[in-house]
Amino acid sequence: MLxxxxxxxxxxxxAMVAASAVSTILIAEDLSPGLAGLPNTAGVLGTAAxxxxxxxxxxxFGRAQALRAGYCVAVAGGALTVLAAVGAPVALLFVGMLLxxxxxxxxxxxxxxxxxxxxxxxxxxxMSTVVWASTAGAAxxxxxxxxxxxxxxxxxxxxxxGPFVLAVAATFAALLAASRxxxxxxxxxxxxxxxxxxxxxxxxxxxxxxxxxxLIGQLVMVAMMTSVPVHVHHHGQGLGALGLMLSVHTxxxxxxxxxxxxxxxxxxxxxxxxxxxxxxIVSALTxxxxxxxTFTLALFLLGYGWNLCYLGGSAMLAGGSRLESRVxxxxxxxxxxxxxxxxxxxxxxxxxxxxxxxxxxxxPLLVVVAWxxxxxxxxxxxxxxxxxxxxxxxx
Length: 395
Fold this sequence. Notes:
The protein is an all-alpha fold. It has helices spanning about 5-30, 40-60, 65-85, 90-115, 125-140, 145-155, 160-180, 205-225, 230-235, 240-255, 255-265, 270-290, 295-315, 320-370; strands at about 180, 390-395. A two-stranded antiparallel sheet has the order 1-2.
């Protein structure tokens, strides 16, 4: 049953968006506007570290317990952000955002729990549903900021504490939803303990290709989009134009996820990741091109190319918790790297330099994927033991 998995992911995304938005304001007021981005950096680092932790918990305790643990850590993180907002040392905000990142990692990795809960022929569709629902939570969270602020004021709390209280409530609700996910009657997979130097997780070409596709898609997308606000500002366009561009890009990233999942289930991951890599490369070149009339359309295609890479790579990895979590951690680490390098490269050579870097990184991988005979072969995640029933909601 997918409902508890989907609901928990949507709630966690709403909590993360609310906390991320207000944390920047709190730091700008209490410390300095130049430091306002640090809480979100802590959230990104927490997501990367949390992905590794959730993967280890999954291998040891099962996926359902691992997701609960991640959401439980997020509840604690949300509580720390509330304390920081009401006057406790501001350092608690950074710790709280770090812990919220662990819950965000659980939300991201819950797409694999959705894959476990359905027939193998519908795994990609299940994962895409979780991605789509998570976006609904992220989009709905900001609309609750003002009501949460009003509630906090009525309770005698600082106005900025309201969204953090909302984050606590949402993460706790996500934990309750995750409690309805039961482990399978038989383990779907188990990782045997390493003995005499045996490596528990074996990398093969499929794993490398899947990880490469997800990492390249994330790197190109984040690097290009981080510099879009700078580009818009330099050309004298207002926030309205920027908002339209970002909305169109987000639409490309998430709106058609169910279609991507259906395509993967019908044709396999290979044509999807080929299309994804080709799309992010072409869209990066289009963004860097001289025509402004195709700029916004290129941002939409960049978003959908990322979607194809992300879900196609995920479908190739589904079934090995440690591999899934390590790749997820790598994706978020790449996000931090791309964010830091984007504006520096843009200042040095504009979108053209960013596009050249995208082609240099993406084109070789596109050639490799196109020429491989069986890129969607099952991914070995250590030693597979048993088959097992899917995870379902507790009745």
